[in-house]
Description:
Blueprint: E1 13-15, H1 22-25, E2 39-42, H2 46-59, E3 63-66, E4 82-85, E5 92-95, E6 100-103, H3 109-117, E7 121-122, H4 133-138, H5 146-149, E8 156-162, E9 168-172, H6 177-183, E10 192-199, E11 201-202, E12 206-209, E13 212-215, H7 219-229, E14 237-245, E15 260-268, H8 272-284, E16 290-291, E17 294-297, H9 298-302, E18 314-322, H10 327-336, E19 346-351, H11 355-358, E20 373-381, H12 390-401, H13 420-427, H14 431-441
Parallel strand pairs: 2-4, 3-4
Antiparallel strand pairs: 1-2, 5-6, 6-10, 7-11, 8-9, 8-10, 12-15, 12-17, 13-15, 13-16, 14-15, 14-19, 18-20, 19-20
Helix pairs in contact: 7-10, 10-12
The structure holds flavin-adenine dinucleotide.
Amino acid sequence: MRLLSPLAGFKGDxxxxxxxxxxxARRLWNGAIDRYPxxxxxxxxxxxAALALGYARGSGTPVTVRGGGHNxxxxxxxxxxxxxxxxxxxxxxxxARHRRAHVQPGAxxxxxxxxxxxxxxxxxxGIVTHxxxxxxxxxxxxxxxxxxxxxxxxxLIAADLILATGDRVKASEASHPELLxxxxxxxxxxxxxxxxxxxxxxxxxxxxxxxxVHDRGRAREVLRFYRDFIETxxxxxxxxxxxxxxxxxxxxxxxxRGRPVIMLVPCYSGDLSxxxxxxxxxREFGPPVADLVxxxxxVAHQSMFDATVPHHWxxxxxxxxxxxxxxxxxxxxxxxxxxxxxxxxxxxxFHLGGQIARLPDDHSAAGGRDAQHAVNINAAWPEGGPQHxxxxxxxxxxxxxxxxxxxxxYVNFVDSDEGDARVRxxxxxxxxxxxRIKARYDPGNFFRGNQNIPPATPAGKVSS
Length: 464
Ligand SMILES: Cc1cc2nc3c(=O)[nH]c(=O)nc-3n(C[C@H](O)[C@H](O)[C@H](O)COP(=O)(O)OP(=O)(O)OC[C@H]3O[C@@H](n4cnc5c(N)ncnc54)[C@H](O)[C@@H]3O)c2cc1C
């Protein structure tokens, strides 16, 4: 008698070592990651994910989950594991009347933005459109609209999950509210999400946005101006700071390409004439060497930086949450940011606060509500491969900023070599509650191919 394969009925693709597509299928955004899963289960629907999970459990094989495949630590794949791959499930359905988006787990932000753009609706998203909705949302998530509408995960109102047992549940305020609390920032620790439901907001399709560029030599005065300017910024305005080499891209004036620069990048999404008035001092200060602020579709601004972080380059990141910039932080940024050797490496200062900070710290698992900024020090090298001298640059700038950090870090900016202490730092006072929820929903720590939160022990203790 022939035994039925536990994966019989799987409708998507099962890709194994030796298959012609295996090499491509195991590539992630970060070309420094080189992992060999036992099978890549590219799902066609949620039932496929349940089958793959059942197979992994039955065979005692570890499991990983891939949304957009962008996590810098490469958690979407592990050697010898079953990789549940959602890259074939990218549909976004918008219910405009109820202002809801139903999003499949392989959708990218470009899919989300495209579905909303013509409807006068939107919601906070990551600032690079080829990043995955799933991992970004599950880690908390912020972008240009977050000061206005909150963290991405604050806008997650429900999710369908497959638990470690194979049971299917909906997490919402009405059903498994603790699970909803946990997946709004607690990552892939609690189950496999097969559909996200987001609240959407009415917004215009145009924003006033783009880089205001200064030479590196003026970094200190520009950063001090920036610190004062954003003190009175309305929620409709975010201003990010990018300390880098001006990239070789069409939108960069030719005489600036390759020059060390500091870019203040505003994105104003409210009333546009009011925006023009608010942005005037920012555009006049200096004066800048280039003012690339313009009225443009929000989706155009969203994708503006996509080409600066292409797939399959080598990347290594380190990050802190920061309070309002002190002179000490400004000195560190001005001294370290350009000590890199790769033109593609950069330091990016995200602007938080606004609606993010208005919710209490324990509103959800996500952190960063007490921070004014997240700083991401990004070593990037086009040659790919695991090693580059800028990894040391990145670590040095990280260490120099450490005394000025809030002590917290955004979990999605933690690289895979940073250890459990860093995951604890990401969750702070919310960690113990997460460990208890983990013990309820995944007591065997089946979902551990991630920034892991081990389950609290039966006595309620959190394992160290
Ligand atoms: C170029 C770039 C730009 C970025 N910009 C931003 C930004 O503006 N704002 C921001 O907040 N973050 C940003 N990030 C960080 C981003 O949030 C993380 O990299 C995130 O992990 C990406 O999600 P993903 O689905 O693409 O990743 P993946 O690597 O596919 O997934 C990461 C992890 O999430 C979990 N996961 C994924 N899908 C599921 C699922 N369906 N069910 C359960 N668990 C799942 C798994 O543990 C998985 O290993 C950026 C990252 C990159 C590379």
